[in-house]
Write a structure and sequence with these properties.
Helix content is about 30%, strand content about 20%. By secondary structure, the chain is of the alpha+beta class. The model is unreliable at about 1-35 and about 390-455 (pLDDT under 50). It binds zinc ion. Zinc ion binds near residues 248, 413 and 433.
């Protein structure tokens, strides 16, 4: 808010309403505050936004009136394909001329608004006589004000970068565009909204913009990127190669569109498997699953609805997910693979979606895959019909929505370099998928479903 404040000024393009509509609304609000005797409405000028770092957004406005200012309130909306989430903040005011300022915390236990998110806002200033004025709605893209960001757009994808990192930004941009197109073809869907990709020079620079995770986990897993909301990617690992990190994360954008419905979401194994399958190369995940196969140390698919939280198991988890997805596409074909996503989106639990389209449940698929890699089938006892939402996880939501459905937890993949005696970190293609803002209705539906069952 002190230094870096200038850098923290971001586009707050006034848009939405045409000038005619603004004039009309202005005239109406003028009439509304003129109950009889004339007193001029207050003025709200110099509306600005400062984002000194990724932890907060400060909204400012100058309010002046013929009478003392009684209130200055900024109403904001965090825009998301899952549904906008709004709120309002009231500034401390006194006197006829007020420089009002309020700060929205963006990375707390209750609320995480990732950088790259678009936010609209408008100030309403009211004086002691009840006369008020509302500024036109402005839109800003939330970015870390410690850096000087530049951006460019290709098709529906915008990329943001700073500090001479344009070449990497181009790689991330082109990889995102290509991966979205590839996965749209694979899964037979279109991503119906614009996507923003924020590119840092390195993991350290990006740290403050990430949702905080358990420290031990952080130390042991190298994370290269994250899909932080349905339409925003964070990319920050030059070691892993921006291309495959971007291809992976862009894959998550499409899996969400293809497979996450209002009542169901994809289990992590098919979500992550498809994202690794979207990479040009699975990198270190391939030797990891090959070693696990050799040692007969693979995991029952049914136990892979949520990502592992054991850093040493991350590469195997991603590798098995990838290998399973590749097996499905190669064995059953792309049409059936896409149809499985559609069934989940339409509300089927994963076992039902698999049975309907390829004739096996998760255990049957796991055994078919085991046989394909030279392992013996396992005789699993029958599983009661699932009534749960596979992969659904309680996750922090922006703006205090208590919890809701997201596609997967914000767990990282990639080379787990801290394993004692483990292999050197080679392919740090690493990767995570994060929850984003979700429609309140979905959250409520989730609660309703959760009430109706005991255990996932
Ligand atoms: Zn992922």
């Amino acid at each position: 808010m002190i230094e870096g404040a200038r850098a923290g000024f971001f586009r707050h393009a006034f848009r939405g309403l045409g000038p005619g509509a603004v004039a009309l609304i202005g005239a109406l609000s003028f009439l509304m505050v003129q109950p009889g005797v004339a007193h001029a409405a207050p003025q709200a000028t110099n509306a600005t936004v400062e984002t000194p770092d990724p932890a907060s957004i400060t909204f400012k406005v100058r309010a002046t009136g013929d009478a003392d200012i009684a209130s200055a309130i900024v109403n904001y909306k965090v825009l998301s394909p899952d549904g906008n989430v709004g709120g309002s903040l009231r500034a401390e005011v006194s006197g006829r001329t007020v420089d009002a300022s309020v700060t929205l915390q963006t990375n707390t236990n209750e609320r995480y608004i990732p950088t790259g998110t678009q936010i609209t806002y408008a100030w309403t200033v009211t004086d002691k006589n009840g006369a008020s004025v509302t500024t036109p709605e402005a839109t800003m893209t939330f970015l870390d004000g410690r850096y000087q960001w530049q951006s460019k757009k290709r098709g529906q994808v915008s990329v943001y970068w700073y500090g001479g990192n344009e070449a990497n930004a181009d790689v991330a941009l082109n990889a995102t565009v290509a991966s979205i197109a590839d996965n749209e073809t694979l899964l037979k869907v279109k991503v119906p909204y614009d996507v923003r990709v924020v590119v840092w020079r390195n993991t350290n620079d990006a740290k403050a913009a990430q949702r905080s995770r358990a420290a031990t986990f952080d130390q042991q897993v190298i994370t290269g990127g994250s899909r932080v909301s349905p339409d925003v990617l964070h990319i920050y690992d030059p070691l892993g190669g921006f291309e495959d990190v971007a291809r992976h994360e862009a894959g998550h954008i499409v899996t969400k569109v293809a497979g996450d419905g209002p009542f169901t979401s994809l289990p992590s194994w098919i979500d992550e498997g498809t994202a690794v399958y979207a990479q040009k190369d699975p990198g270190g995940y391939r030797p990891a699953i090959e070693r696990a196969i050799k040692a007969d140390g693979t995991t029952r698919l049914r136990s892979m609805a949520a990502p592992t939280n054991q850093p040493g198991q991350v590469d195997i988890f991603y590798g098995q997910s990838w290998s399973t997805v590749k097996f499905m596409v190669d064995t059953y074909g792309k049409d059936k693979f896409a149809a499985i996503f559609k069934s989940v989106k339409d509300g089927a639990p994963i076992d039902e979606a698999l049975e309907k389209n390829i004739g096996v449940d998760q255990d049957g698929l796991y055994n078919a895959w085991r046989k394909s890699v030279g392992l013996k089938a396992i005789d699993f006892p029958p599983v009661p019909k699932a009534t749960s939402i596979a992969g659904a996880q309680a996750t922090q939501q922006p703006l205090g929505i208590p919890t809701s459905v997201t596609s997967a937890e914000n767990t990282a993949g990639g080379a787990a370099g801290a394993q004692a005696g483990g292999p050197a970190v080679s392919s740090t293609t690493a990767i995570a998928v994060g929850g984003g803002a979700v429609v309140v209705a979905a959250a409520l539906a989730f609660f309703a479903l959760r009430l109706s069952r005991k255990k996932a």
